Each structure stands twice: as C-alpha cells, then as structure tokens.
Write a sequence for this structure.
C-alpha cells in the first residue's frame, strides 16, 4: 500500500503542523502589526461597502469640499432612494459603524482622541440627521449635474443639489447603503461583535 | 439500491480526491476571496448597477482584485498541488494585503481565512514527502527560505506607511502605490459629466482634499473668493426638480429685490427667476425643504442618460421626495436668493411674488427702502429656491424620504 502511494502521482498527504507554524506565526505577527498600525492611524485603510444598510454615527463631522444630491441605489428587491453626500476631505470624531453580517452585528469604532480622517468620502444614505449643522460658502438648489465641490462626483442633470466649501455637523446619525473612501485612517480602531452605535 | 451503491462508490473517490491535494486550504482561500469581493460588490452584482462601480473607485477595485486572486489561488492549489508552496504564500500575502486595501480585510474575516487557508496549503505535504524531507540538507534550506520570506514581507509592510505618507500628496494628480508593489494611476472616479457644464471654469479645486490636512480650515479664504467669482460669472445652474421651502417665519435683513433674471437650468435652457439679495435670511418655525424628483433611472435628460443610463434602466421608481427639516436655517454673509415664486405674510397682508407680477414691480421700486429694513414675514413659501450664502447655520437637521 505504502509502496503504491509512493509511486502514484496522486498520493495522499496531510498538513504538517510544524510547517504550518513556520508560516502562520510570522503571517499572524505581520497581520497583527498591520492592525496595530492601522489602529494608531499610521496606515490608511480603503473602505467600500455596498448592498446592505448600516448605521454610521459620529459626534462631529468636519469636511471641506462638500456636496449633496439625490440618487438611488439598487438594494435587495428594488431600488432605494438615497442622499448622496460627497466630501473631499473629512474628519470624524467618535466614528461608529454597525454592520449586520448575517446574525451578527459587527461594530467598528474609531477616532476617540484623534479623529478619523477620510479623503473622497462618498456616502449614500437613506436618512441623515444631526443636532446642528454649519455650512460655509453654500449653494442650495444648484443643478446636481454641475456640482463641483467634490471633484469627480456629480449627480444627474436636472436633479436638486447643494454644495459647500466646508461643513460641520454635530452628532451625525446616518443610515447608509454605501460608503466608499479613497483613504481612511482609523486611529483607535476597535472592532467588536454585538451592540449598536449610540 | 442502485443509487446507494452509486454514492457509496462515489464517496471514496471524492474523499481520495480531497486527500491527494491541499483541499481545505484551497477551499478557505476561495471562501476568503468570495467574502472580500462580496462586501464592496454585493450591491453591484445583485443588479448590475454600473454607477456603483464608478463610486467604489480604487478601494473597491483592489478589494475585488485581491478577492479574485485569492479564488484563483484556492482553485489552482487544488488543481495543481505541486505548486502549493507558491499558492500558499501568495494566499497569505494577499490576505495580509487585504487589510489596508479592502475594508480591513473584509472586516477581518477574509484576511483570517486567507492566512489560514494559505498556511494550510503551504503546510500540506504528501505522506511520503516527509521521508524525503528528513534529509537534513534540503529541509534546512527550505526552512531558511521560508524564514526569509516573512522578513521580506515585514520589511515591505513597514515600508508601507512611509511610502503612503510620501505618495499622499501627489496621489491626487499622479498614481497610487500599495506596498510599493502595485502602482496604478489614480482613477479619480469620473462620473460622466452630465450635460453642458457652464461652471467648468470653477471645476478643479486642487485644495479640496489632501490627506491628513484635517486642519481643514486651511485655505477656505482663497477658494471662497474663487467660488464667489465663479458664481458671479454665471456658474449657477438651477435645478429643475420641483423644490419648495416652507417656514413659519422668515427674518430678512436688508432685503433688496434685484429684478428678474434668466438663470441657466440643468439640462439646458433657462428659468426666469426673481433675484433677491440680503445681508441675512433666518428661517424658523418648522422649516421644511421638500424636493421632488424622478428617480435617476427615469431621468430623460441629455446628460442624465450618460450617468444614470448605465444602471440598465433598473430605476424609474417614479417620484421621490426628499424632506429636509430643521427648526431654524440661518443664512448669512451676502445671501443671494433666486426663486420662481415667493409668498408670505407681512402682518395681515399676504402677498405672492412671481417674476413679473404687479407686486414685484412695486417691490423693485421700493428696494431702496426694503434694503435698509429688517422684514419679518410669516407663512413663507419659496418655490424653486436657489440660494448662495457665505454661511448657513442649521439647527437639528434631518434629511429623509417622505
């Protein structure tokens, strides 16, 4: 039997645990280092999520190059109207994001002492609320197709849009369908299961 | 009976197939890849919404690329077990790379699966290979090579933050590098510019977002001036969607009616609107801005087709109304208001203004007087508002769909 296996091209094999450790341990160490650096805000992460609704909260959002217009995303069985907000450069304090992954809720918090910063942040939200908002250099009622505050992002011509040079929103609460950002630095990153955002 | 014999025959061969290759490692790699693809693309795949791909940009593209490569590694390692060391290491590297590149490694799950799967594929050996491996020379050399590899990986990872900082500034104009390995020109997400864009002169705003410049108040002064000039030069394009702002009361400081103006409208043409200027306009008492527009899928505009037509006509949900509510909206700093219709009550006297009615003509004559006053109107309704202001201070703001 052994002899046959030896010569056979399709011999059985198995995982050698020592060999596994040789690669798993350093790989784990590197991954842990990356996670650590990211949670210090030293490495920017790329974030893009779509196809499900999730909750995003922050105690304060500061942004420059803001624009907003109506659109829709495909979601589940049909389409869902959304408010598209684009921010060229944003910083968020006490960011919290709750994503439902099957039966689990993944809760991601960051930006406790140092705020989270994001570039080219685009959020498609089904609702948006804040306890107060301040805009500078604002234009409301601009055609959505001609918005220029966030380069490369504009809505459909004829739509209602608004844009501002800078924006501050306190106690932001958003239900979003899609988040994407060129870069995301997440200082103080903490991931946990269960619970929701305040 | 025949069925039973069939499965009992098949089962061992399936089992033998699995046992003769790093099946579980490959499976984990493939699952990791599917998970990484799923997060950015599930919304896209379910409806083929091209617009989302444009939105997702470089982050999503890398996520998908890494996911596809992981699936390929997983399948290849099963089909070609001889190259399991290569596929295993590639899988582990891709898994680690997915952490900064794709949604924190698919919220950790995909990264951990890829590292586990790649390690298992790497560590899988033929039952008789262990005997060969016992030869000290080859084994020692291989171990050395294996040990050197993580050192290289670590070095590249540690170089990454520095590299990122270095590329951060030119990233907008040039390309972006991830781990010094993959360099791509930054695909600034280009939504096809819909329609004619008269505001083109004001388009590129290079200072919009340099990463890390969270001291955001840096250069608004310059840009504000630029934007003002653009606005004065006719950069304003009125939205054609039906929009109405209502408020319990409005306090207008130094309001002056500047006459009717033809404002360019989205999708071509112009709209005749009244132009008002004021030092400040404060709306209070259940301020509601309601915007009704067709879903983008149903838009028939010239440019609308270019940007939204890619959705395969999945939309067309008819009218969608967006409601913005706030207890107060305070515009200040050279407020310019355009509107097609404005109504309100000054004490018991209620008036409705449209660009060419008699009251408006009177108001035009009286603008010298109103320009020195503070007026308070009640029950204010403004149709098709187009407002520019130096600043807007809003109370508790809520935007939702009605």
């Amino acid at each position: 039997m052994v002899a046959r296996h030896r010569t056979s091209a399709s011999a059985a094999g198995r995982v050698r645990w020592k060999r596994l450790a040789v690669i798993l341990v350093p790989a784990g160490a590197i991954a842990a280092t990356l996670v650590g650096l990211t949670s210090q805000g030293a490495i920017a992460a790329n974030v893009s999520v779509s196809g499900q609704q999730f909750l995003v909260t922050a105690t304060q959002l500061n942004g420059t190059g803001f624009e907003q217009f109506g659109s829709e995303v495909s979601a589940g069985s049909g389409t869902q109207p959304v408010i598209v907000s684009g921010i060229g450069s944003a910083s968020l304090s006490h960011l919290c994001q709750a994503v439902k992954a099957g039966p689990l809720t993944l809760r991601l918090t960051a930006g406790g002492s140092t705020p989270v910063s994001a570039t080219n942040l685009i959020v498609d939200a089904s609702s948006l609320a804040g306890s107060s908002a301040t805009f500078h250099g604002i234009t409301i009622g601009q055609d959505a197709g001609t918005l220029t505050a966030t380069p490369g992002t504009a809505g459909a011509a004829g739509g209602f849009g608004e844009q501002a040079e800078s924006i501050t929103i306190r106690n932001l609460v958003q239900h979003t369908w899609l988040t994407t950002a060129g870069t995301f630095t997440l200082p103080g990153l903490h991931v946990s299961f269960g619970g929701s955002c305040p | 009976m025949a069925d039973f014999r069939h499965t009992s025959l098949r089962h061992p061969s399936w089992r033998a197939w699995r046992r003769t290759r790093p099946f579980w490692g490959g499976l984990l790699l493939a699952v990791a890849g599917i998970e990484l693809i799923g997060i950015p693309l599930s919304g896209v795949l379910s409806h083929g919404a091209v617009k989302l791909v444009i939105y997702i940009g470089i982050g999503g593209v890398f996520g998908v690329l890494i996911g596809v490569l992981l699936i390929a590694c997983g399948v290849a390692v099963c089909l070609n077990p001889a190259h399991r060391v290569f596929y295993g290491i590639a899988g582990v590297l891709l898994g680690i790379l997915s952490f900064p590149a794709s949604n924190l490694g698919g919220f950790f799950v995909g990264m951990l699966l890829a590292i586990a799967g790649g390690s298992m594929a790497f560590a899988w050996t033929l039952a008789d290979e262990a005997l060969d491996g016992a030869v000290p020379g080859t084994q020692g050399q291989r171990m050395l090579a294996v040990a050197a590899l993580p050192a290289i990986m670590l070095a590249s990872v540690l170089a990454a933050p520095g590299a990122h900082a270095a590329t951060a500034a030119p990233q907008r104009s040039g390309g972006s590098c991830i781990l010094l390995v993959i360099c791509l020109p930054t695909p600034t997400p280009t939504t096809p510019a819909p329609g004619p864009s008269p505001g083109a002169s004001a388009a590129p705003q290079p200072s919009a977002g340099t990463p890390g410049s969270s001291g955001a108040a840096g250069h608004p002064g310059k840009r504000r001036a630029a934007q003002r000039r653009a606005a004065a030069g006719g950069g304003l394009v009125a939205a054609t969607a039906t929009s109405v702002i209502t408020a319990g009361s409005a306090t207008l400081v130094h309001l002056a009616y500047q006459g009717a103006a033809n404002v360019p409208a989205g999708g071509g043409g112009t709209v005749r609107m009244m132009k008002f200027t004021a030092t400040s306009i404060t709306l209070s008492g259940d301020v509601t801005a309601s915007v009704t527009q067709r879903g983008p899928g149903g838009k028939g505009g010239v440019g609308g087709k270019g940007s939204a037509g890619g959705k395969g006509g999945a939309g067309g949900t008819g009218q969608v109304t967006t409601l913005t509510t706030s207890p107060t909206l305070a515009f200040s700093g050279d407020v310019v208001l355009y509107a097609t219709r404005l109504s309100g009550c000054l004490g018991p006297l209620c008036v409705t203004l449209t660009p060419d009615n008699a009251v408006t003509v009177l108001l035009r004559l009286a603008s010298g007087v109103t320009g020195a006053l503070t007026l308070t109107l009640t029950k204010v309704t403004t149709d098709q508002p187009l407002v520019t202001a130096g600043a807007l201070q809003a109370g508790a703001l809520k935007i939702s769909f009605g």
Chain B touches chain A through 154 residues (CB under 8 Å). The first strand of chain B starts at residue 124 and ends at 126.
